[in-house]
Specification:
Blueprint: H1 2-23, H2 25-31, H3 38-65, H4 79-94, E1 103-112, E2 115-123, E3 128-136, E4 139-141, H5 149-156, H6 159-167
Antiparallel strand pairs: 1-2, 2-3, 3-4
Helix pairs in contact: 1-2, 1-3, 5-6
Length: about 170
């Protein structure tokens, strides 16, 4: 997360300096004079503000796109992770807490004590669902639909997982 904040902050500074160069070119180029021939200076004055804004915009966008990049998911090749995914899939077949059709493919997203976080893709061939789950021992909970979905996700999941879920990070799906 610190790298993303640095990228976003740097981008904002570049954009601000670029806008300053566009709006107040005389004061900007007094502080940051161009060197070389008059032709070079004229080109620099014409293109530098746009370049600063473009670089700043790129840094801001890159910082936001990488915001879920630090998410560490469990290793699916680990026997413990595979066992927990199988336990959750079996639990989903027998649960009455939420409606789950047919068989489920499960991706374990993390664990804290006796709480597991997972994403399940379930289908019986006719109907299906794909949703994030919080499993407290044997009790399964899913976020609500529609307008309450994002609020439920932020309260049910740790912040890094909630961000990845809301961003629909492809790494969280089975």
């Amino acid at each position: 997360m610190p790298l993303q904040l640095l990228m976003i902050g740097t981008g904002v500074v570049f954009i601000a300096v670029g806008i300053w160069a566009i709006v107040r070119p005389h004061s900007f180029f007094r502080v940051f004079p161009t060197f070389g021939s008059d032709a070079y200076a004229a080109r620099a004055k014409r293109h530098l503000p746009n370049i600063l804004v473009a670089v700043g915009g790129f840094a801001v966008v890159a910082g936001f796109l990488n915001s879920a990049g630090d998410l560490a998911l469990p290793d699916r090749t680990s026997a413990d992770v595979q066992a927990e995914e199988q336990r959750i899939a079996a639990l989903l077949e027998s649960t009455t807490d939420i409606w789950i059709p047919g068989e489920c493919n499960v991706r374990l997203l993390g664990q804290e004590g006796s709480t597991s976080y997972a994403w399940a893709d379930c289908s019986d061939g006719l109907a299906g669902t794909s949703l994030p789950l919080r499993i407290d021992t044997e009790q399964v909970a899913a976020p609500g639909d529609g307008s309450i979905f994002s609020d439920d996700v932020t309260t049910m999941f740790p912040s890094e997982l909630a961000e990845a879920i809301l961003a629909r990070d492809e790494r969280i799906f089975p």
